[in-house]
Design a protein that fits this description.
With 161 residues, this protein is mainly alpha-helical. It has helices at residues 25-37, 46-83, 87-131, 141-151. The protein contains 4 helices and no strands. Mean pLDDT is 76; it is low at 157-161.
């Protein structure tokens, strides 16, 4: 059973270009290893994005189940307060309801995170799919993708949108 490919590639020592301006063999190997590390893509990691979306989706589902259970417990506790007017039952019902609301807020937060992750994945997929048609005759796909990324309006901390 073989392990994953070792993609570690240290920066080549010494010159990176020959006297005629062409890259050295070590530098070519370094660039090829970097290209292999990216999965032959311009840099987005769709597997990681999908895994994050899956994790967020599972967290939302688990929180939703907990919220439903807490809501049922709160409703059961509230129905006990109708039968018993004891203050202990009322306090327990209030605590259960508050717990249900906290879990519901957590579930909503996870849902928002999952939606944001899915939006990011969609944007990356759209960016990747639109980079190839922009390539011109004398332009490689890599140059086309870099051109697309560099000319895309990205939100920044200096210019919130």
């Amino acid at each position: 059973m073989s392990g994953p490919t070792d993609l570690n590639s240290p920066l080549p020592a010494g010159k990176i270009c020959n006297a005629d301006g062409s890259p050295t063999v070590q530098f070519q190997a370094f660039i090829r290893r970097l290209w292999e590390r990216t999965g032959y893509s311009p840099g987005n990691d769709s597997l990681w994005t999908a895994a994050e979306a899956d994790i967020a989706s599972l967290a939302v589902h688990a929180s939703s189940i907990k919220a439903d259970n807490a809501q049922q417990a709160a409703e059961a506790a509230q129905s006990l307060t109708v039968l018993r007017t004891e203050s202990i039952a009322l306090v327990k019902a209030q605590e259960a309801l508050e717990a249900a609301y906290r879990v519901l807020l957590n579930a909503q937060a996870f849902e928002a995170k999952a939606l944001k992750t899915l939006e990011t994945a969609q944007k990356l997929a759209m960016l990747l799919s639109t980079a190839s048609p922009e390539a011109q005759a004398a332009q490689s796909q890599n140059e086309s993708m870099m051109f697309s990324v560099m000319n895309r309006p990205w939100p920044s901390s200096h210019n919130p949108s």
